[in-house]
Amino acid sequence: MSRSRPQSPAVIPLFLAAVALLAALAGQAGYRQALDQLALRGQSDLALAADSLTSQLQTYRELAVLMADHPVLAGLDPRRGPEAAPGREAARAVLREVADKTSALDLAYVDAGGQIVVAASGATGSRAGAPDVRRAMQGALGDAHGPGAPGGRREWSFAAPVFGGDGGVRGAVIVTVDVDDLEEAWRGGRAPVYFVDASGIVFVSNRSELLFWRETPGRPGLQPPQGEAPPVRARHVGGREVWRVEWSPYVPLHALHLSQPMPVIGMTASILVDLAPARRLALTQAAAVAAICLAFGMMLNLATERRRTLALANAKLETRVAARTRALTQANTRLRREVAERQEAEAALKRAQAELIEAGKLSALGQMSAGISHELNQPLMAIRQFAENGAAFLDRGRTEVARDNFDKISGLAQRAARIIKNLRAFARNESEPMGKVDLVQVIDTAVELTAGRLGRDGVRLGWDRPAGPVRAWGGEVRLVQVFVNLITNAADAMSEQEDRGITITLTEGERLVVSVSDDGPGIADPERIFEPFYTTKEVGSDEGMGLGLSISYGLVQSFGGHIRGVNGPGGGAVFTVELDRWETRRPQDGSEGQAA
Ligand SMILES: Nc1ncnc2c1ncn2[C@@H]1O[C@H](COP(=O)(O)OP(=O)(O)OP(=O)(O)O)[C@@H](O)[C@H]1O
Ligand SMILES: [Mg+2]
């Protein structure tokens, strides 16, 4: 598995730097784009302002030209004196009317020497030195503006020559305009616009605070008439001039400076376009790009972090699985060892059990030996008696009686042979296979083996013997051992009393149940009777080892049966042995099973 490396600490600052760079580039691009659009609009605004000023001035210039041909001026008496006065009055009335109608400040007529002959305002004096008049006297159209400093009223005048009959200049018409009136139309317009004359002075502007400021060659921006303005920081963005000016609240802080020469009126027009929208747009664009990049980065980081956590969890899990597998393998090995040990112990137990069974058998045989010798002795004595009697009868020629004796001898010999056969079978030390067993025959044999003992003790035996065979699943010799144990125990329990009786019954139900009950005192501790070496009999004596019932328990268990011992309702002990019918355990091939 590939383990994910922890994030390098330099990654985040690097990423942030990249985001900042990208945002700056996006902002710059947006700024330039917006700048182009603002420049286009600014240029058209500037052209509009310049056109407006030019056309207004043009009107007054044309007025001067028109008035130069007016007949009232042509007929003016050039002499000074009372006789010329009526003509001057009429001319003045005309000039005043025209001035009123055109909103001109003044209209005047000067003679060839520059002396005012007549003026709408009634002004008198000489205008000889004025540049416009000087130009008009040369036969051309002159214009002038002034003053060049704050304090006076800004005027713009046009002088048109008035030609005499001889073709020479005999005077000039001067139309004077108040620049304030001209500015009225576009004062306070959106962007600051100013017009700088040939001497570098701002003469016309829609921001009054900029009037009379001057341009310094080779230096961007304007300077106020007195003192120094905060310096203009100018830079070029995409070939455009961008200023940072702190002149007035009505002049944008960041402005695009555009200018346009106006040769017709001898001025240069300038506009300062507010860059705030462009800056806002650039900022928005940069912020958007930064936000997108950061969001993307965060998502990427989140995904990486998630993968890393998952990988860590996976690694942890794998370690745990490996540890667990190791533990399980160890446990498995241990279990296998334990199983082997258990199997060994089981084998040892089986061996011990087999030895115990043998010991039990020997003990039973030991106990039975007196009875058995008695049992065998009796028929032997009888045989001897019958044989002697038989011989005597033969001697007397009573063959019938002798024959009867021989028959009795034969019967007694058979009986002795059966006892010996049972004993041999009981003592046989060989493993006996399980299979079909006639339970009636088994109980018969047990009764026969214990008959001597019971007879000596005078025990009544009630054995409700079924007529036919009852087939059970088990081992014959071992079952005989069980019932011999039960009968012997019953006899032992009743040894202290006068009246002694044992009842054996066989009930055939789903299973086969043999019960052995006695008239004894009952079991002292029913819970413990099947424990090995539990006995109430004298320890160490021949009487009891406390093994009979525990061996019997093991034997019945090995046949799949059950043995239990309780005290009966009328006193005395009741032992029941429950066994499977042979039919229920019969091998499926239908064979009779192995013979016991
Ligand atoms: N029929 C019975 N009535 C009363 N007590 C019984 C009866 N059968 C068994 N017991 C009690 O159960 C005990 C255990 O019996 P068990 O046959 O196992 O051993 P034992 O007879 O004492 O000795 P062993 O059979 O080895 O010679 C007996 O000592 C006795 O106290
Ligand atoms: Mg016993």
Could you describe the 3D structure shown?
By secondary structure, the protein is α+β, with helices and mostly antiparallel strands. Helix content is 49%, strand content 19%. Strands 7-6-13-12-11-10 form a 6-stranded antiparallel sheet. Helix 1 (11-68) packs antiparallel against helix 6 (276-395) and helix 8 runs parallel beside helix 9 (476-493). The longest helix has 120 residues, at 276-395. The chain is rod-shaped, with a radius of gyration of 75 Å. The two termini are 67 Å apart. The structure holds adenosine-5'-triphosphate and magnesium ion. Residues 485, 488-489, 544, 548 line the site of magnesium ion.
Please identify the oligomeric state: single chain
Low-confidence stretches: 589-596
Total number of helices? 11
The best one-word shape is rod-shaped
Number of β-strand runs: 20
- Distinct ligands: adenosine-5'-triphosphate, magnesium ion
Average pLDDT metric: 87
* Largest sheet composition: 6 strands, antiparallel
Q: In angstroms, what separates the terminal alpha carbons?
A: 67 Å
For the biggest β-sheet, the strand order reads 7-6-13-12-11-10
Helix content: 40-55%
Radius of gyration based on Cα positions: 75 Å
Q: Which structural category do the helix and sheet elements fall into?
A: alpha+beta
